[in-house]
Each structure stands twice: as structure tokens, then as C-alpha cells.
Amino acid sequence: ATCAYGSYGASAAYVPCYEQQLPSDWEYILKDSGASVLFVSRMDLLDDALRAADGVTDHVFCFD
């Protein structure tokens, strides 16, 4: 919820991705949305998220 509220406060779009989705789905969503920042909830998801975000987003942050 914090990321969503921060996005709305910055007049940015919040585009969720879900843990059950494949990293290839994440990559498609990131490219299609034009995301520049990716927030990852847990370290065990970080490697897949970094691969999906490679060359797509400017910044990746992990909360764990």
C-alpha cells in the first residue's frame, strides 16, 4: 500500500505485478507500462525481478 500511496502522491501510475506470475510476464508488464522504478517485496524474488527489469527500468528496490 505504501508504494501505491507514494505513486499516487507523485502523480505516477502504480502497476502491480504478482508473485504467481512468470518473470516473462513481469518483463512484459514493465515494458508495456513504461515503468522506470520497480519495487520488490522479498529477496527471494529479487533475482527474477532483476532479470525482468534488465534494460527496462532505471531503478530496482527491494524491501527485504
In short:
With 64 residues, this protein is an alpha+beta fold. It contains three helices and two strands, in the order ααβαβ.
Question: Could you characterize what this model shows?
Answer:
14% of the residues are buried. The longest helix is centred in the middle third of the chain and has 11 residues, at 23-33. Strand 1 (37-40), helix 3 and strand 2 form a beta-alpha-beta unit. The protein has helices spanning 2-9, 23-33, 43-53; strands spanning 37-40, 59-62. By secondary structure, the chain is α+β, with helices and mostly antiparallel strands. It has a two-stranded parallel sheet with strand order 1-2.
Mean of pLDDT: 93
Give the CA-based shape: globular
Strand order of the largest sheet: 1-2
Q: What portion of the residues fall into strands of 2 or more residues? A: 5-15%
Judged by helices, strands and strand pairing, the structural class is alpha+beta
Radius of gyration over C-alpha positions, nearest whole angstrom: 11 Å
How far is the N terminus from the C terminus?
Answer: 16 Å
Number of helices: 3
List unreliable stretches of 5+ residues: none
Compressed to H and E, one letter per element, the order equals HHEHE
What share of residues is helical?
40-55%
**Tally of DSSP β-strands:** 2
